Amino acid sequence: MEKIVIIPTYNEKENIANIIKAIFSLQQGYHLLIIDDGSPDGTADIVKDLMEVYDGQLFLEERSGKQGLGTAYIHGFKWSISRGYNFIFEMDADFSHRPIDLERLYTACRYEGADVAVGSRYVEGGRIDNWPWDRMFYSKGGALYTQLITWMPIKDPTAGFVCYKREVLQNINFKQIKFVGYAFQIEMKFAAWKLKFKIKEVPIVFTDRKDGASKMSKGIIKEGVLGVLKIQFRSVFKDYRRRVRNPSEVAVPNQFKV
């Protein structure tokens, strides 16, 4: 088992079947884990129907209610590590991240020496399609602000299209990752950077969702602004590294053990 894509969902019935089919149509050996936070629109039921079609490749974890993007991904990281996947991806359900770009992130980690590959909108060759000017302003401004506060040499620190090598996630102490929303993506990259893993930005085309409702809100933006300050301040007092006797040891909840 080499590659798995984690997609958290909440009310994504318009997109979920199509994104699943698009990823498997690549025929590049990806497995797919959907983590649904009790979507009332029936997203999980659509996934369950498709699990019969993609038996052994498509998996579903259901959680009760909205618990936050960060906790969904950490749940997925632990699930994937416990099953031996070597390359673990984050991806949105709404086609803002193009499935065809998965292989470019994988190549960066598998063959080009990266420990973390970030699908970046703000490096040469990357771009955003169909965003209004205010979203562009907040996003670019937030990226620059994050760089200035954290000194992290990443031009798109809030990007949610990422490939992690297994070793990176094994070494991050998830208990030290405190944010569950917008700032989660920043803190994960910050942790990997602090632990001296090699991060490479891969240019992608980011397209605004066509179907379903955006999850962006003023609260998310506020978390990002204040979160960056907290991440930098707390980094003086915390260590993101997991402390284990055996480097290959990974503590996982009982429900993930096989």
Automatic annotation (TrEMBL):
InterPro entries listed in its UniProt record: DPM1-like (IPR039528), Glyco_trans_2-like (IPR001173), Nucleotide-diphossugar_trans (IPR029044)
Highest rank taxon of the organism: Bacteria
GO molecular function: dolichyl-phosphate beta-D-mannosyltransferase activity
UniProt-listed Pfam families: Glycos_transf_2
Keywords: Glycosyltransferase, Transferase
Keyword Iron-sulfur recorded: no
GO CC field: membrane
GO biological process: glycolipid biosynthetic process
Family named by the database record: Belongs to the glycosyltransferase 2 family.
Protein name: Dolichol-phosphate mannosyltransferase
Highest classification ranks of the organism: Bacteria, Pseudomonadati, Bacteroidota, Chitinophagia, Chitinophagales
